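Job type: complex structure
Entries:
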Amino acid sequence: MFVRKLTPALVALVLFTMVLASCAPAPAQPVEVTRVVEVTRIVEAPAAAAAATAVPAAGPKRLDVVKQRGKVVCGIHTSLAGFGYLDADGKNVGFDVDFCRAVAVAVFDDPNAVEFVPVSAAERGPALQTGEIDLLSRTATWTSSRDAQWGNFTVVMFYDGQGMLVRKASGFTTLEDLDGATVCVTTGTTTELNLADAFRQRGLQFTAVTFEDTPSVYGAYEQGRCDAATSDKSQLAAVRSGFANPEDHFIMDVTMSKEPLTPTVPQGDDQWFDIVKTVAFVLINAEELGVTSANVDEMLKSEDPSIKRMLGVEGSFGQADLGLSNDFAANIIRKVGNYGEMYDRYMGPEGLAFTLDRGLNKLWSNGGLIYAPPLR
Amino acid sequence: MQPTHTAQRSVPFWRDDRVLTWAAQVVSAIAGVAFVVFFISNVLQAAKLRGLDLGFSFIRDAGGFALGESVIEYDPSMSFGRAYVVGLLNTLKVAVVGTVLATILGVIVALARLSTNWLVNKLASTFIEVIRNVPLLVQLFFWYFGVFQQLPPVKESIELPGPTYLSQRGLYMPAPTPTATFRPWAFTVIAAVVLAALAYYFLRRRQVLTGRPSYPVWTAALLFVLIPAIGWLAVGASPLQIDIPVLERFNFAGGLRLTTEFAALLTGLVVYTSAFIAEVVRAGVLAVPRGQVEAAKAVGLTYGQTLRLVVFPQALRVIIPPLISQYLNLTKNSSLAIAIGYPDLFFVGRTIINQAGRAVPVFVLVMGTYLIFSLLTSSVMNVYNRRVKLVER
């Protein structure tokens, strides 16, 4: 990741702090040195905040609190193309933002009943731990330590991973095709390490051209200094869309690291956890069953029992136990769309942000990893 | 009566100049040492508080990152320490080559600047003014992205005789590589060098002592060429073979490679430093009294001889000290390589800091290494300075 770009400044800050500490007798607060600028992952939670989670959230159920408030408080990104950003009218849009809207529809049947809270990478953990947000939908990579410390990770909504950007004319499809190639990469990142690992693991040779500064990496690649450039796929896609001729480049269907981006809820409220998971299941099952925002009203008349059950026409799949209305799934599909629609809206062929092949984010039935338990 | 003597006697020690001077020195020294001790212990304490490890044990751990170029063998499975050495050698490479080239270019520009030819003179002063007044970092970006990256892609390399290939990936040229018979042949080369040096020394001495022309240069040159040539034939199979770069799927393989990162850094440093060296040289030449040049002309020396035998030996006394700081500047400025992706000492140091998470030890190491470079360079140059400086009797 691009985690460590600020390290020089921060190291200077640390040294400076040490000098300051010499003036003040009291031990200074530990300065968080690294990863402040990171996009999808953050610092280990400060010890004090971690301790807070040890106390289970007692008191009223979160669903009741949310209903009383009239809004879902959702922690998001406001400047990450495709996932959470502001459109020309200053409206919060993006794949992650739409997930917040889907939860709001489930509770209130209103995609705008959301209070968006922009959170920085470093604030994400504490915001969950203190329970000030109901939901974090901000490209957070699910890791075991975060699961233990921050909150409950619900359902992986986006399988990101380190990818490889190459010229279309090259015709490369696998890493093996890149044996002997020159690869541009940002120095000091995990990306750099993953790159070396991936090639070593396959017994392939490569020459690295490394820069500290991310624009230089892509500048050198675009000018032809490198045969390929590597980073997280979503970033490569965003960068590619900014090239003079985006069509001349493509992101290889190869994944060199695992970055499962997952919406997360605070710990200690099983009902709320289940509601958010069920919203994700609805989005995914709707795509699988072919129910879209365009055809949902026709689908109400469908003979397929699975569709009937999902849309609340017949039977139930536990809506009442979750405290949701019988037709909440139909509402979500009508107002937000299904998983595929959300993806295509921002990252599909006609996407608002950029175009990124679905790859691992295809449905399981199409060879991807997107899979949800049945709704019954 | 001796009033002065009595007065000195009666001065109490706290008003005695000698005592006060000493006291001031001692107090300053103690304060200085205390400050340093306090600063160091503070760093150590702060590191302990933050749980930072200031040790160097990580240096043996595998680095896991690749580097663009190296003069020694390196791959990601090797240690941080090895990577550091790679960076160090890369810095030395660019510093040594850069210092030599900057000196040559600097002298040429200085002579042009001193020329009485209006055009040459103005061109040289424009060059100096432009180069000295644009920040080096900006110039490096210009050379890298503006010049070297604009060369044709590797598949459409410019082919020069040799065959040498020039592309945006770098300059690939044929490289002589030793074969099995290289070692015996190398001995004939060493023998040739020794014999040529001895011949030069004795023939020149003979010429100086007797005044008879003895052709020391010609003889030495002949020996230097002839002996290895005979050796080449004597060892049978050719001791060297030419490794020609061949275009593979992505890059040229074989031959000698100069990357564009290295080329851009070298060009930037050489051009930038040469402008400063030119001014230093010009100042040195102008410091030689005009009468010396006129006297040289009067005895019939040519322009070249005047420069070589009269002007430069005297100008060097003025040139050397500021030249030392230009050499040091070039070495230190090479740390800007980080901007254009050349893996020098500072670049590798920064990467290690990020990957090993050890800022303080690595910065100490990097600072110490640059300090040693600079001290070595300046001590060597100081020895030279002592040799050329005016011997006063």
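Summary: The first strand of chain B starts at residue 158 and ends at 160. Chain B has twelve helices and eight strands.
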